Amino acid sequence: MSAPRLEINLDRLHHNARTLVTLLGRRGISVTGVTKATLGSPTIAREFVRAGVASLGDSRIENLERQRGDGIDAPMMLIRSPMPSQCSTVVAVADLSLNSELEVIRGLSAAAGEQRRTHGVVLMVELGDLREGILPGDLHDVARETLQLANITLRGIGTNLACQSGVAPDAHNMGELSVLASRLESDLGVSLDIVSGGNSANLDWALGADSIGRINHLRLGESILLGREPLRRTPIDNLFTDAFTLVAEVIEAKVKPTHPWGEIYETAFGVAASHAAPSSAHRVLIALGQQDTDPAGLAPPAGFEIIGSSSDHVVLAAERAGTPVGSELRFAVNYAALLRAATSPFVECMFSRDLAAQDET
Ligand SMILES: *Cc1c(COP(=O)(O)O)cnc(C)c1O
Question: How far is the CA of 19 from the centre of ligand 1 (A)?
Fold first, then answer.
């Protein structure tokens, strides 16, 4: 088998997606399965659809295009504001997009007109995380202008928290989104079918709050893929946290001194690694590096400690000998490590199924 490789257990992803779709469905919340951390993998997208997600979402139109090219006909949502230069691809591929600039929405309307289509728009509202979003005071005007565009359907409003500043979804900001939705409807005489509360960081709130108000939609990536909520990265009950495993091959195994020698300056990636002596002098090099993953986001197997990395090497200290050249080491990944591994041309994706999990779903 080729290395490095990302082993992906589709049954575990199916289970995670299905479990979240069911739990949120009981609260009236539908789920868009977000595939961006996996380069929009059509295999994973198809598994999400089988598990019951209402639509697929990605921040890159190229990823959605790949899914369409692979024959997936589920509703698709572009979850990053379209680039003005990509408006015609966006309306050709995606059913709706998340938007925060009127100028872009005008571009989408023009492109949709040329293609004799209508394009759905969800207006993103800034509620404190300071990434994308229209300031609440400007929402009314932007919505009114949007409603006047010929080839655009205003589908709803949404927000995104946690990603940029770590702001947690709570009763206050989610309450504000609900109030904004209801106020827009009464002021403008429209009905909004989507009130999209956010991403995986919303799960604790969405499943725990006494009242979720108007929120009826979430866009979920990390919680399905890795079984964790992103605010504290705690595992979510009954989900698999190990659907992905990164496997790398050993290319050197030696006993070496625990400290470097010579005068010490910058390393390939800036600051020198800490000079705390590793607990063992058994050193193992694997053919994996910053080009393939985020080494800081890898959890090594028991008995191994990651002590450094550069473009193409990760250096580990091993408690004992017995990891010969040519053997493989398996790592759990966090979101950053997964994102980079799934998007590196050097890392092959290998899909598998797992009968035990299949029985459950
Ligand atoms: C990435 C992203 C998501 C999904 O976030 P997760 O934390 O992976 O669930 C949802 N919405 C937007 C706008 C995003 O950019």
Answer: 18
- Residue-wise pLDDT for 305-333, tens only, equals 999 999 999 999 999 999 999 999 999 99
Rounded Cα gap, residues 231 and 45, in angstroms: 24
Which residue among 5, 12, 18, 36 is the active-site one? 36
Most distant CA atoms of the chain, gap in Å:
74
Give the helix ranges, DSSP H, for 127-170: 136-147
Ligand 1: centre distance to CA 148 (Å): 29
Model pLDDT for residues 338-347, shown as the tens digit of each residue: 999 999 999 9
Closest CA to 332 of 248, 249, 224, 238: 248
How many CA atoms lie within 13 Å of 203's alpha carbon, on the beta-carbon side?
A: 26
Residue 315 and residue 310: Cα distance in Å, rounded? 9
d(CA 292, CA 359): 34
Cα(259) to centroid(ligand 1), Å? 42
76 vs 304: CA distance, rounded Å: 42
- Residue 361's pLDDT is what? 44
Decide whether any atom of ligand 1 lies within 6 Å of the 99 Cβ: no
36 is an active site residue: yes
Helix (H) or strand (E) holding 256: none
Q: 196 CB less than 6 Å from ligand 1? A: no
Q: Is the CB of 34 under 6 A from ligand 1?
A: yes
pLDDT digits (tens, 9 = 90+) for 123-172: 999 999 999 999 999 999 999 999 999 999 999 999 999 999 999 999 99
- CB 297 within 8 Å of CB 336: yes
